[in-house]
Structures are given as structure tokens and as C-alpha cells.
Amino acid sequence: MFESRPDRDAEVALVGRSNVGKSTLMRELTGHTFDTGQRPGVTRSPNHYDWTSEDFMITDLPGFGFMEGVPEDVREQTKTDIVRYIEDNADKILTAVLVVDGKAAVDIIDRHSGPDEVPYDVEMFHFLRDVDVPVVVAVNKMDKVDDRDERLNELCDRLGLYPPWKQWQNTIAPISAKRGSIEPMTDAVRHHLHEAERDDLFQFF
Ligand SMILES: Nc1nc2c(ncn2[C@@H]2O[C@H](COP(=O)(O)OP(=O)(O)OP(=O)(O)O)[C@@H](O)[C@H]2O)c(=O)[nH]1
């Protein structure tokens, strides 16, 4: 398991299927350079960084879902490890950012929906809510999407959020990490961080 979590109280965790652009987003947030577009499934354990503009630790969790050349049992183990990490640290994770590919997410979700199959993204979204971690869905690669509102509404629908997406701006954040346009995500995360701070204060009354 993951053993090197620094002892920091406030954490933002990034999760997402392989190849959604997590490394590109991390580069934007931290200023570190990451290997992007490399062989999928390379990151197997959480990596912790400082979020440069905020006083928080940001944790990059391994990519999950289908990865070319990665055996099924390794894939399942990665998912189990991610879930366990989040469960173990749920009280410290102030917000989770679930990164999805804006162009492909709905199709992938639909392809994997069935009587005994829950798509990874949907499963992760509900799991995070179940453990009381506020979720921001960073809908990445929006530069490739033409029918923006329609796609985002469909995604809301698949996640069980009543469309239109615009009423979920603290949850649904359309971004393009590659172009450096990630403000909807940082705004939404800040919103949740402030809420967490406020809850902390109220605890004393
Ligand atoms: N068009 C477009 N492409 C993007 C964007 N963000 C990332 N990409 C591309 O998507 C591919 C995957 O990006 P990565 O950042 O490596 O993705 P990852 O999620 O870290 O992938 P893994 O390492 O497999 O976990 C790369 O070719 C990126 O250039 C974006 O906003 N728009």
C-alpha cells in the first residue's frame, strides 16, 4: 500500500481514468513537469505535491480503468488501493477532483452501463459522496468539444445530477488543462475549501 503520505491536514485529491489529462492538470496546478502522454498506468501510487497558489497538499492518485497492456488483476488492485486510500484519509481530503475526458466520458459511461455494471466514473463519483468528500468533476479537453452545453448536461444526467449543468457549477467544472484554462475547477475547489474551513470554525460553537 501507499506509505509515504506526508502528515498534512488539508488535502485535495485528484482521481481519474487513465489518459484523461491528469498529469497535464497537475502541471498547471503545481508547476512541476510530469511525464504526459506516456505509457498509461505508469503512476501506481499516490504522489503528493504542494498546490502552489494555495496552502494545501494535492495528491495525484493513480489512473484507473482500462489501460492497454495492464492486466485485469493489476487494474482491479489499483482501483482497490485508490478506494482504500480515500477511505483511510477521507477526513483530511477536503475535496476530490474527479477528472474526466469531456469528449469521451458520456460514451464510455454509456458503453459500460448495464444490469450488473457500473461505469468507473459513476462509481467513483458516488463513492466519494458516500464517504462525504465533496467532489468537483473536472471535465477536461473541452477544447475538443463542440456541443458544450449538451455534453455537460448529458454528463450531469449520467452522474445523477439534474440538468442543466449550469446549476452545478461547484460540481461540474469544464476545463482545458492543455490550454491552461482551468479556472472553473480552481473556483469550485476553493468554494469547497472555504466551506470546509467554515465548518471547522462552527465546530467550536
Ligand atoms: N485536447 C486536449 N488534450 C489534452 C488536454 N489535457 C490533456 N490532453 C492530452 O491528453 C493526453 C493524456 O494526457 P495526460 O496528462 O498524460 O493524461 P493522464 O491522465 O495523466 O494519463 P495517465 O498517465 O495515463 O494517467 C495527452 O496527449 C495530453 O496532451 C486538454 O485539455 N485538451
Describe the structure.
With 205 residues, the protein is of the alpha/beta class. The chain has a single domain, classed as Rossmann fold (3-Layer(aba) Sandwich), CATH 3.40.50. 38% of the residues lie in helices and 17% in strands. The protein has six helices and six strands. It has helices at residues 22-30, 72-89, 105-111, 120-130, 148-159, 183-202; strands spanning 11-16, 47-51, 56-60, 93-101, 135-140, 172-174. It has a six-stranded mixed beta sheet with strand order 2-3-1-4-5-6, sandwiched between helices. α5 (148-159) links the parallel β5 and β6 (172-174). α3 runs parallel beside α5. The longest helix has 20 residues, at 183-202. The chain is globular, with a radius of gyration of 16 Å. The model has no long low-confidence stretch (mean pLDDT 88). The structure holds guanosine-5'-triphosphate. Residues 16, 18-24, 36-38, 40, 42-43, 63, 140-141, 143-144, 176-178 line the site of guanosine-5'-triphosphate. InterPro entries: G_ENGB_dom (IPR030393), GTP-bd (IPR006073), GTP-bd_ribosome_bio_YsxC (IPR019987), P-loop_NTPase (IPR027417), Small_GTP-bd (IPR005225). Necessary for normal cell division and for the maintenance of normal septation. One of its GO terms (molecular function) is GTP binding. Residues 8-195 form the EngB-type G domain. Keywords: Cell cycle, Cell division, GTP-binding, Magnesium, Metal-binding, Nucleotide-binding, Septation.
Layout of secondary structure:
Layout: E1 11-16, H1 22-30, E2 47-51, E3 56-60, H2 72-89, E4 93-101, H3 105-111, H4 120-130, E5 135-140, H5 148-159, E6 172-174, H6 183-202
Parallel strand pairs: 1-3, 1-4, 4-5, 5-6
Antiparallel strand pairs: 2-3
Helix pairs in contact: 3-5
